[in-house]
Design brief:
Distance between the termini: 76 Å
Structural class: mainly beta
Number of strands: 44
Largest sheet: 23 strands, antiparallel
Shape: globular
Low-confidence stretches: 5-22, 108-114
Strand content: over 45%
Helix content: under 10%
Radius of gyration: 30 Å
Number of helices: 11
Mean pLDDT: 89
Length: about 900
């Protein structure tokens, strides 16, 4: 009895202590600071929405959030921080008895942490449209190359970056595409601001023929904090060009140690050597910071040309291959700055800026001129010659802006940007046949220039309308001025010197491979556009989020456009959400498409069997007398309708899936016409120094339809390390739904406005489907990355002759591997791209210029073969 009584007394004494311990609350504490300068951020809200708990940071950026014990119960919750001017962040934490510390480093939402697709803070976790985010770590280990376009292609299956050759300036500024559309239907932003395009108009037989796109390789990959790819039409939000989607390049920011990275490599075919050096450093600048990246890149050419089987007409043996079919030789110097400075003590007003500049020099060949071809003078080149284009490409850009928060509620951003791109055509190892055997061998053939000035004002605020969450209202205005210039080359680069060729026939005028721009080609054209937008988004109910955007834009050269976008996201469960969007879009004709004119030498397959034959093809402005006589009309803007829908499924914190369907209909698509040649046209074209003609036209309507699927998984293998796995699939199929009828004047010359070669280029010239799989493992200082990429099938774009010679190139798998080891202040890595040395299918003889052009120029992964490399990085 006494024992039982003692036990009850002891239980009575211990029970209150036990209950007291069980009743201990969870206390979550931490500090909120800004990423740019590390300063504390007061008045930020830290909350656990599902428990209806919140706290506000004090002047030191500190917060204390108490969770009653009865609400904790070892559960996982989302801890979220938000404030005007900051991009909201959220992390998952497990509530346990006692203290939990969770700090937040925040970026300003209009600059450093821009996330495309929505102007609402924190929407990156609630996207109604698909957005891929590629981190700097993924970029740095993506490939042996350091070209930004190739790095993105290695990770994003919706992105295509072929490596064309013998395509004039396009050998150096190679077009990139999204969702198998055109390079000019992808809008590129840097820190959320519109990037200027290249001055180059792609005029030869490549993917992107007739377009002007952004030169992504003028932005060093080492300067990137991340890349965001919005896979959705967004013209209603961002303006012209965003038909396929938006690519946002977010630059490194904040203070950081000095880092030097050296990378070197080569193909296993004794060419394509790479040397790349990058320097990065984040400096304190007053109360703010500036981050600098510099890069030097030297790449030697690759050549996969076959032997020319034709008689060379020379006493000497011509070294083979005499052609160049591969990557150009290239030397690049690039520098970028990105900085921010708080303008007051509270840090709610900041000055920010970016500046970038580059010079890129290339060397690439045209078609070889044999000794006894009419284009050669044996007195100058007794064994024939390979004429070279050696472009100099200068790019400069700058942004200056002020952003802030007024009244603790209104978020505003005022900025101005300038962009400049100049492409100089320098021709070497050439001649002007019409000047006779005393012709000079080097020429300046002229320049293309593009300038852009943009000013933006953006204002946003959240309003509480009594719905499930605040509604974000954003309004803004934009002014943009564009300028396009074409500058004539030196006289001898285009003149007809009057000499007959070595056989007494009519000699071709101008520098071989690229006749210079003539004074009649010169142009200095400008236009203005003004735009205003309204963007509304928020949680209407606990499970439904809606967004509505509208944009009005006026162009001085063709008038007004109005576009709208509607988005919806339905949260069926905490793990499963459905999303969809519908929008209209547009793309204004580029100034290059409206104003470019030139005469260039194109080698076209003619006859049966087809023989590569030179034509001096003139590109004529649509408002020129000749183009009008052939039926050309003023260009109109492209218009599009975009539908998408899909779901996001996250069964665990470590695993998520997304799948999306899209359908893009484009009306009045701007394309290059076919090349008009033939005996009937020759007398009309010869006074213009041409034997062929073409012009830009709104010739086609298209429909692009596809699906995109992604999967991400992260596993903590404990003693075995950490494993991250990513897999993605993209399919895009283009169909031409209408071709404008051939104008009567062209029909009279038995010409077709948009021929079957151009149809093939649009419908099957790019892979219809792609797969990317990446596995990233790390354990302590050791790391390994394994990548597998499947490039889908595509068709040839060089054969305009008989359908019997049409060729489809089969899908290929490529595998990459990199091993790395991290030291205290350095890291080293070795890797192999294309481990199994895979190449695209060889072209059939009818399409390969007698077997010289072994592989297709539109191969999505080039045709260099295996590449081995090593890299070392060190911080100081």
């Amino acid at each position: 009895m006494l024992k039982r009584l003692g036990f009850l007394v002891l239980l009575g004494l211990l029970l209150p202590v036990t209950l007291a311990r069980a009743a201990d609350p969870t206390v979550v504490t931490g500090k909120v600071t800004t990423k740019e300068d590390g300063h504390p951020y007061p008045n930020a809200t830290v909350s656990i929405t599902e428990l209806n708990l919140s706290a506000v940071t004090d002047k030191a950026g500190l917060y204390v959030l108490k969770v009653p014990a009865e609400l904790a119960q070892e559960r996982k919750v989302e801890l979220r921080v938000s404030a005007p001017g900051l991009s909201a962040k959220a992390v998952r934490i497990t509530l346990t008895s006692g203290a939990i510390t969770q700090d937040f480093t925040m970026g300003f939402s209009f600059h450093t942490d821009v996330t495309v697709g929505s102007r609402a803070a924190g929407a990156e976790a609630e996207k109604a449209v698909p957005v891929d985010v590629i981190t700097s770590e993924q970029i740095q280990t993506a490939k042996g190359t350091t070209e930004t376009s190739q790095l993105i292609e290695a990770l994003a299956p919706s992105f295509n970056f072929p490596r064309p050759t013998i395509s004039d300036g396009t050998d150096s500024v190679r077009p990139a595409t999204l969702r198998a559309l055109g390079p000019d239907q992808l809008l590129v932003l840097v820190n959320g601001k519109r990037r200027h395009t290249s001055a180059l108009v792609n005029v030869n037989g490549t993917i992107g023929r007739g377009t002007t796109g952004v030169d992504l390789n003028a932005i060093p990959a080492a300067a990137l904090e991340r890349v965001e790819i919005l896979r959705d039409g967004a013209a209603a939000q961002y303006g012209s060009d965003a038909i396929a989607g938006v690519l946002n390049m977010v630059l490194r920011s904040g203070q950081a140690p000095f880092e030097v990275t050296l990378r070197g490599g080569t193909t296993t075919h004794s060419d394509g050597r790479l040397l790349d050096v990058t320097l990065t450093k984040g400096f304190a600048l007053g109360r703010g910071s500036v981050n600098f990246t510099g890069e030097y890149r030297k790449r030697t050419a690759t050549n996969r040309a076959g032997v020319d089987p034709r008689a060379q007409g020379s006493r000497d043996v011509i070294e083979q291959p005499s052609y160049h079919w591969g990557d150009a030789d290239e030397r690049d110097i690039i520098g970028f700055l990105n900085g921010s400075i708080p303008m007051n003590d509270t840090g709610d007003i900041s000055l920010y800026f970016t500046a970038g500049g580059s010079r890129r020099d290339g060397v690439h060949g045209g078609n070889f001129r044999r000794a006894l071809q009419t284009q050669n003078w044996p007195q100058i080149y007794p064994n024939g010659f390979l004429p070279l284009i050696e472009p100099k490409i200068v790019d400069a850009s700058g942004t200056l802006g002020v952003r802030g928060v007024s009244g603790g509620k209104w978020l505003w951003d005022l900025s101005a940007q300038y962009g400049h791109n100049k492409f100089d055509f320098n021709i070497t190892n050439s001649l002007n046949t019409s000047l006779g055997p005393t012709s000079q061998t080097e020429f300046y053939s002229g320049s293309l220039v593009f300038n852009q000035v943009v000013a933006n004002l953006d204002v946003a605020r959240e309003f509480d309308l009594g719905l499930a969450g605040p509604i974000n209202f954003a309004i803004g205005a934009e002014f943009r001025r564009e300028n396009y210039q074409e500058i004539a080359g030196e006289l001898n680069s285009y003149i007809d010197g009057g000499q007959r060729d070595q056989f007494g026939g009519k000699a071709g005028a101008g520098a071989q491979v690229f006749p210079g721009f003539r004074p009649s080609n010169e142009v200095d054209a400008s236009r203005n556009s003004v735009a205003a937008y309204l963007d509304i988004e928020g949680n209407v109910t606990s499970f439904l989020r809606l967004g509505l955007a509208g944009r009005f834009e006026h162009y001085s050269d063709f008038g007004n456009t109005k576009d709208v976008k509607l988005t919806a996201r339905v949260e069926a469960t905490k793990q499963l959400a459905f999303r969809g969007a519908a929008s209209t879009g547009f793309r204004a004709p580029s100034l290059g498409q409206s104003n470019f004119s030139a005469v260039s030498t194109n080698f076209l397959n003619v006859g049966t069997p087809p023989v590569l034959t030179p034509f001096d093809v003139g590109t004529f402005r649509v408002d020129s007398a000749l183009a009008r006589a052939l039926g050309a009309e003023d260009l109109r803007p492209e218009n599009s309708v975009h539908f998408s829908g899909g779901f996001v499924y996250s069964p665990t914190n470590a695993l998520d899936f997304t799948a999306d369907y899209f359908n893009i209909a484009i009306r009045d698509r701007i394309v290059f016409s076919g090349n008009f040649t033939g005996a009937a046209l020759t007398p009309i074209l010869l006074p213009f120094g041409a034997t062929g003609a073409r012009f830009f036209t709104n010739a086609i309507n298209t429909r692009t339809e596809g699906v995109e699927v992604t999967a991400n998984y992260k596993a903590d293998l404990k003693r075995a390390g950490i494993l991250r796995f990513q897999a993605s699939y993209a399919r895009a199929e283009n169909t031409i739904t209408n071709i404008a009828p051939t104008p009567a004047p062209l029909s009279a010359f038995q010409a077709v406005l948009f021929d079957r070669l151009e149809v093939k280029r649009i419908e099957c010239g790019q892979p219809r489907d792609n797969v990317r799989v990446t596995s990233d493992w790390s354990k302590g200082p050791l790391g390994a990355v394994v990548r597998a990429a499947r490039y889908g099938s595509f068709c040839d774009i060089d054969n305009a002759g008989s359908t019997a010679n049409d060729q489809t190139f089969s899908a290929k798998w490529l595998f990459d591997l990199e091993l790395s080891y991290k030291l205290a202040s350095a890291s080293v890595g070795i890797g192999v791209d294309n481990i199994f040395d895979n190449f695209p299918d060889r072209q059939i003889a009818a399409n390969s210029n007698l077997g010289i052009f072994v592989y297709p120029r539109n191969s999505p992964y080039g045709f260099n073969g295996r590449f081995v490399y090593a890299r070392i990085s060190s911080t100081f």
